[in-house]
Design goal:
The protein is an alpha+beta fold and 314 residues long. Helices cover 25% and strands 29% of the residues. It has one domain (5-26, 34-53, 75-313). The strands form 5 sheets. Strands 1, 4, 13, 14 and 15 form a 5-stranded mixed beta sheet that branches. The chain has a 5-stranded mixed beta sheet with strand order 7-16-12-8-11, covered by helices on one side. The protein is elongated, with a radius of gyration of 26 Å. The N and C termini lie far apart (58 Å).
Amino acid sequence: MDFKPQTLVDLQKGFSLLFEKGLTNGDVPIYWDKKAEKIPTPGVEINVYGWMAEMPQFKKWIGSRQAKRLAARFYTLKNEDYEFSYAVARNDIKYDRLGIYRNHSSQAGIAARVIWDQILNKVQAAGKTTKCYDGQFFYDTDHPVDLDDASKGTFANLFTAKPLTPENFADVYAKMSMLKDANGEPMMVRPNIIECNSTMRTKVLEAIQNQLVIKALRNVAGAENVAAAAVDNVNKALVEPVFNDRIEDGVWSLHHTVMMKPFIVQVESEPTGLEMRVDPNDPHVWDNAEFLFGSRATGAAGYTLPHLSFRCEE
């Protein structure tokens, strides 16, 4: 094609439209907003979060007020820069070899659409080796119930060798629901989401959506299975299934997202539109005979309270 200024104008417009089409493509699912609090942090590099060791509790008023010094623990989250960029050779425009770049522009828009999923999924997967506000790994077996009194014991939100069955689902659901705060009061945690990837779809449907489940019947001594029977599924419709194929296989998680969500997506700046360096007099364009296209965003992902997410590994 003739290489004229209008050629570059048309190229910018076409690539931008394809990028926007990918960015707004509703057929590409996003999941982060189901399990993460979005915290806008414009102009902030590091944000500090404070979590209290106990919930507020009314007591009978006798004499003077009994003011308790709240034990706060702090959690910091640093925003990071993210980008993608690609170069289009001047001759690829001149000789109209742009098909592959058009597809790339659309895929770039999709990448911008799912960036917070991409970041959060990595943080969630790293929860077994990354510390949260109480100094323990986010997914761990010995979170302190009271940060200032070890005698009150610990709780686990990480379970291994825990295949997804109706019985195991009920067990983990109950453990999560029975959590208490440092005052010994129920935290009123009620898991409302089960998350896994699609390889576990059948197990999820059997555990929480079937009307009936098959239960083994044991002999009088309780030592051997002698028969099986269909019984009412007490787990039916307790939680919403989320099949997130961007997370690892063999793991299922229960999340509470009603009063607070277990994760944070901290956004300093959303992905830009498609930015371009296409001026023929631009030093890079002049020296390298290529035009540059890209986008950028700044943010991070992290954790709130470990009480709100339980991880089970098959």
